[in-house]
Amino acid sequence: MAAHNVPWVESLYFEEILKTKQLSVEEVEMARFYNKNGYLILRNCIEHKLIDETRKELQEDEDLFSYKNPRAVQLWKKKEGVKKIATHPKVLKTLEMLYGREAIPFQTLNFKYGSRQKPHSDSIHFHSLPERFMCGVWVALEDISSQSGPVTYYPESHKLPVFDYQDISPEFRPASSLPGSFYYDQYEPFIQKAMDIHGFSPEKLIIKKGDLLIWSANIVHGGTAIENPDLTRWSQVNHYYFKDCLYYTPQNSNRVSGEYFLREITNIKTNRSTWGNYNGQKVRRKKGSYYKFLISPEASYDFKDVKALFAKAIHKIFK
Question: Which of 116, 162, 233, 314 sits most deeply, having the most CB atoms within 10 A of its CB?
Fold first, then answer.
């Protein structure tokens, strides 16, 4: 069988691989829909009791959210309900069916109001090697109104190439050294124009409490305008990487020079950290500039080796 180094559900050989999978009729339908559209909606997936407990925890801290700053990051570290939603067995099982690898929840975002974020792909903020082994799960913590600034997403846009700043800027440098407005002035208009030119039409996510949306790494999505500022949009976004990948931040990387801003992530389920690997193969990292790494089996030192050698040198000096 021909190989394609991406998640099987996004492979060029998807139908061929599907025949080898031992899936239920429902799972086959889910995989086919995800392959075609880049997203999946699961109805009544998260128990209302858990949602109510989580909402109560979130509302205990009045200073967490405001209309201007509607989201809070990584609350799983102190809110048990947030952690339980991020590690929900039904969610993990579905993701592992779709991606064929163990899912690693590494980030939570909680919202009280709509984000009003312009269309973008998560693959600009965090991505993986091999590519596309990342996804988001958006959970409704209340019934979502069309006037509360619901999420919008562009079906099938995940089939476009993965774009980073090296595709948009002619500069030989990562985004971290570009003007701070580059994301808003260059990246967002680039993505919006791509949607318009290729005829991708947005859909609004109007779902009920306990429903959720799974979106693939490269699907374009955002938040719509809030028509009624008196309405809340309680929700939780969980981001997942997958086992046997390297994890990096594209905005701070320079793909042209081969320098990647690698991430050491914490698995929310196990509370253990990892730098990952490449399809099960250990990859050595040579320190580059600004916390970036050159990655290669022949790289001079692993980052941990550098620390060990430094400690050994200090010991020699003061022996």
Answer: 233
pTM for the full predicted model: 0.92
Beta strands in 18-133, from DSSP E residues, in sequence order: 39-42, 71-73, 103-111, 120-121, 127-129
Classify each residue of 275-289 as buried b or exposed e, where b means 16 or more C-beta atoms within 10 Å of its C-beta: bbebeeeebbbbebe
Contacts of residue 89, Cβ cutoff 8 Å, sequence gap at least 6: none
- In contact, 10 and 158? CB cutoff 8 Å: yes
Quick one: what percent of the chain has pLDDT higher than 70?
91
Q: At what angle do helices 25-37 and 89-99 cross, to 10 degrees?
A: 70
Measured between alpha carbons, how far is 176 from 169 in angstroms, rounded to an integer? Answer: 12
3-class state of residue 211 by DSSP: coil
Tokens 């988001």 -> residue: 136
CB burial class (10 A; 0-12, 13-18, 19+) of residue 169? middle
Alpha-helix runs per DSSP H in 186-302: 188-198
How far is it, in rounded angstroms, from Cα 152 to Cα 212?
13
pLDDT beyond 50 at 313: no
Q: What is the pLDDT of residues 19-28, one digit of tens each?
A: 999 999 999 9
Q: What is the pLDDT of residue 4?
A: 94
Statement: residue 175 has pLDDT above 50:
yes
